[in-house]
Amino acid sequence: MDPLAELKQTFFQECEELLGALEQKLQALDEGSVDPEDVNAAFRAIHSIKGGAGAFGCTELVGFAHVFEASLDHLRSGRVAVEDAPFTLFLRCADAVADLVSAARNDEPATERPDLLAALEQVGKEPQPPIAAAPPPASDPVAPAADNDAPIGIAALGNLLAMVEAKTAAPAAAADDGWDDEPAAASAPVAGKPGRDVQLRIAPETDLFRRVIEPRVVLGSLPAADIVSIRCDMSQVPPLESLDVSDCWLRFDVALRTELSIEDLHGRFDFSLANEEFEITFAEEAVTEALPASGPEAAEPEVSSAVAADLSAILAMLGPAPEAANEPDIKPEPAPVAVAAPVVVAEPAVARAAPRAPAAPDASARQRQAVSVRVDLDRIDKLMNLVGEIVITQSMLVECVRSLPYDVHAKTAEGMLTLSRQTRELQDHVMAVRAQPVKAVFQRMPRLVRELAQTLGKEVRLVLEGENTEVDKTIIEELADPLTHMIRNSMDHGLETPDERIAAGKPREGTIRLIAEHRAGRIVISVTDDGRGIGRDRLLAKARSRGLVGADERLQPEEIDQLIFAAGLSTAEVISDVSGRGVGMDVVRRNVESLGGRISVDSEPGRGCKFTLALPLTLAVLEGMVIRCGDDRYVIPIASVIETQHLASTPIERLPFGQEVLRWRGEVTPLYRLGDVMGSMGTTNENIVIIAETERGNNVGIAVDEIVGQQQVVVKSLEANYGAVNGASAATILGDGLVALILDIDSMLRLAASASRSPQSDLKMAG
Amino acid sequence: MSLQLGEKHFSSAQPESAARRIVTFKVGDRTFGIDVGMVREIKGWQATTPLPHAAPHVRGVLNLRGVILAVYDLRTAIGLGATDATATHVIVVVDVEDKTAGLLVDSVSDIVDVPVSAVRPAPELERDEHGLIEGLVLLDTDIVALLDLAAVIRDGGAEAQIKTSRAA
């Protein structure tokens, strides 16, 4: 991939984060936060997007973001009180920005949003500068020099590039383009000024920064009033991947009209540059001087003209990367900051040029950025696979060593123990690298709810809980689709319209709770609404008419609810474009199950409905108990095991319809014989019972022959080369190289139930 | 011990005229064949882990260098009962569609080039209800039945399980 495309991709990735932050802050403000930092953060986010968009020529995005930013600025400056601000509009605008970003990302034509633009223009008393003037991207995206407070990244680089471009393209006209608040002085009257035209080429050695000198100091030693133009030549800057940020590759071409003599000029660089690092050319005489300098130090230059404002702005742009200078090695892609990085600390010049800078930089955000690393998922996957192989090899070794004579065994025992601990730690750490909070998915949901609420004419409050629950990256990716479907379903079928709700004695506004938590070694995500619940009569009637349920068949209310996951059932009276084509929940169920997860529904008529999605925390490894039954070995996830005991010590009773139960801690617990359920080969002599927990929190007893041991197993997909196996979620390879199935308690119970029931009522597992 | 059949051995030698290179193998006295391109490797019999309530010809799963794949007993698939697998039996590891699978056969016989024109459509066999046979090739000594591997494997997958669990 060429470097620019790579940068662009990084920019879009950052955009996603920025959009998330924007939405989150707006949401917080909408819900009554008056923290000025929230306003600032929202402003910075949109500002950074705009800056980056400008650098990559996304004109529509820049245009929209510009107006949006201007409106937010009214909040920041206090011209519009936070309490009065139209956050609903802002949130919709944030959605529009997200659309524009994705359009730009996919190279699709962007949708114009004149309605939103017009509404934004109305925010604040003073009329906004009309964006309709649509200046070309190179000159418009110039941002307030507040960039030194924006998250340093591609977006900031975009700002820098855009600014340098703007400055160099039109130095005289640049002062009034909005990115600094210096009074727009008249263009420097170069022609009438006395003195000679001098060309200055400043080409410092790459070790400039290591000499603790920066371009700002060098350029600042020239009398600002004499400077006609400054051009920064970045052509020497090497590709980002090979750039050492402590090298200076910047070259400057300065045009002066000055009365200073050549000696004076030399004198001004005397303390900062070696003679061969600059070149002075007089326009008329075209003579290159290289005399040793001897002049005295120059007085503090005056900063007053428009050109000087340019200078200070450029300097400000060069300044804002102290973080990068502190931690230049940590980011694997120093790309965003590289160009600006070498300059050390922002100085008063910055303050002058950046009067609109947000007051309090988000220190913690900076901290996070400085220590985080973007790594290609592929690399982590390779690492993960390798660790998986090591784990198998390690357990194989342990078995080998056990069969050795005692004295050899004893000598190696300690080493083997250490090895196994280290392997496990290694695995945990690699897993931790892949873990991510579910926030990444959750934060897409508010928008979905907002848009749906509008489409459906419903009033909905979305409550998110447990956003910081961490799961493996592989699971995160799989969450978005089912969650979207579940929320759609709740909004469309579950929640009533405001009028219906009032008639039913409920508050106008419906509530949807999206909750994530860890339970029994799984991540459990529930979507709860307080709507009307599942219309069982209608659902059942529909299922009957489709022949999914026999006409004379009696179903329990819970069984009827499960029909919602049957293929081709939709009970919505009006087929909407939101949901209602009947391709929703059955597809969700199938996808979830293929991941070794499960989805269930609990409904209470008139009170609401709760979808529960349970997924493994990772698709990669699990802690398992290896058991034997007949000739076959199985792995039970340790997370599901509550207790093991001898079957003889527990009285078994038989219920009238044949189900065996045992008393366990005073509760009647159903007992299943693994050999029967899984059809194990060989004779079984089940004398151990494992008490296990199901997803719904019920306990069951599972009778097995023997507990072989406990170990961490690498999860291997059965679906990849075969298909779903009832009763098992996946398989693993044991130390002897043979395959063992990883049991899935819930799926096993359904298998047991299906074996004892009539085929028709087997619908929910077979359909 | 396994015999690797890499493409490098054969694809470059592929004759220009329309011909198919077929790997033939035996189950009992019958000869079957599949395109050599589908064969990934051939290995000796190795114990498999049975799958609960799978179709009868699904022998179980095995570990092939960290990948888990299902082994299908061709003898069962063609209705001749289960193979009593011993060390002399052979698993032909094949790529079918996007999956890798093992085919348990008695022995691998040969690799032959067959002109496409020599492949005859399979007669409508009453017993071949699953359409396992794609075509027939007459060799000097044998009739080779070309297998439609997708059909062999499809019947062992999840769909068949539902069929069997429904019937149960």
Please provide a written account of the structure:
By secondary structure, chain A is of the alpha+beta class. Helix content of chain A is 40%, strand content 19%. Chain A has a six-stranded mixed beta sheet with strand order 15-19-20-18-17-16. Residues 126-153, 166-190, 285-308, 319-369, 571-582 and 758-767 of chain A have low confidence and may be disordered. Chain B has one domain: Beta Barrel (OB fold (Dihydrolipoamide Acetyltransferase, E2P)), CATH 2.40.50. Chain B is built from four helices and twelve strands; from the N terminus they run βαβββββαββββββαα. In chain B, the strands form two sheets. Chain B has a six-stranded mixed beta sheet with strand order 1-4-7-8-6-5. Chain B has a six-stranded mixed beta sheet with strand order 9-2-3-12-11-10. In chain B, strand 7 and strand 8 form a beta hairpin. The chains are: A alpha+beta (767), B mainly beta (168). Chain B: This is Purine-binding chemotaxis protein CheW. Chain B: Pfam families: CheW (PF01584). Chain B: Residues 19-158 form the CheW-like domain. Chain A: Residues 1-104 form the HPt domain.
Secondary structure topology:
The complex is a heterodimer of chains A (767) and B (168).
Chain A: H1 3-30, H2 36-55, H3 59-77, H4 87-105, H5 114-122, H6 154-169, E1 196-202, H7 215-220, E2 227-233, E3 251-258, H8 262-269, E4 278-282, E5 288-289, H9 306-318, H10 322-326, H11 335-338, H12 348-353, H13 363-371, H14 377-402, H15 406-434, E6 435-437, H16 439-442, H17 445-456, E7 460-465, E8 470-472, H18 473-494, H19 498-503, E9 510-519, E10 522-529, H20 536-545, H21 557-562, H22 585-594, E11 598-604, E12 608-616, E13 621-629, E14 632-637, E15 641-646, E16 652-654, E17 660-664, E18 667-673, H23 674-678, E19 688-693, E20 699-704, E21 706-714, E22 728-733, E23 739-743, H24 745-756, H25 763-766
Parallel strand pairs in A: 7-9, 14-23, 18-20
Antiparallel strand pairs in A: 1-3, 1-4, 2-3, 4-5, 6-8, 9-10, 10-12, 11-12, 13-14, 13-21, 15-19, 16-17, 17-18, 19-20, 22-23
Chain B: E1 2-4, H1 7-10, E2 19-27, E3 30-35, E4 39-44, E5 58-64, E6 67-73, H2 74-77, E7 90-96, E8 99-105, E9 107-115, E10 119-121, E11 133-138, E12 143-147, H3 149-154, H4 158-167
Parallel strand pairs in B: 3-12, 6-8
Antiparallel strand pairs in B: 1-4, 2-3, 2-9, 4-7, 5-6, 7-8, 10-11, 11-12
Protein name (chain A): Chemotaxis protein CheA
Domain Histidine kinase (chain A): 416-619
InterPro entries (chain A): Bact_Chemotaxis_CheA (IPR051315), CheA-like_dim (IPR004105), CheA-like_homodim_sf (IPR037006), CheW-like_dom_sf (IPR036061), CheW-lke_dom (IPR002545), HATPase_C_sf (IPR036890), HATPase_dom (IPR003594), His_kinase_dom (IPR005467)
